[in-house]
Amino acid sequence: MTITIHHVPETRRFTTMVDGHEGYIEYSRHGDVLSIDHTIVPSAIGGRGIAGELVKAGLDYARAEGMKVHPACSYADAWMRRHPEYDALRV
Q1: Beta strand pairing call for 13-18 and 21-30
Q2: What totals of helices (H) and strands (E) does the chain contain, helices first?
């Protein structure tokens, strides 16, 4: 399944719409650190890897912007632990 993820800086979110349901990560910025604060995927669209794709989009954005990442959200933290290629971003 391919999903389209949009960065919405005004609301500090990366979002996607799947089957009429919105999933998103919410972040905050603290200097050169992007904190992933919440990962929200409704149960109606859960189990499809959407949360992971959203976290990956946030991490790729942080990498492109030269920022570090604080995975405040437990899901984002666990996802980063399973993907060591993002270890260099962690603060």
Answers
A1: antiparallel
A2: 2, 5
- Provide the CA 30 distance to its chain's centre, in angstroms: 16
Phi first, then psi, for residue 84 (nearest 5°) are -60, -15
Q: Are 58 and 36 in contact (CB under 8 A)?
A: yes
Query: Which pLDDT tens digit goes with each residue over 11-48?
Result: 999 999 999 999 999 999 999 999 999 999 999 999 99
**Token match 């995927």: residue?**
41
Taking the model in full, what pTM does it have?
Answer: 0.96
What is the crossing angle of helices 50-64 and 74-82, to 10°? 80
Residues in CB range of 23: below 8 A, 6 or more apart: 15, 16, 17, 40, 41, 42, 45, 50, 51, 54
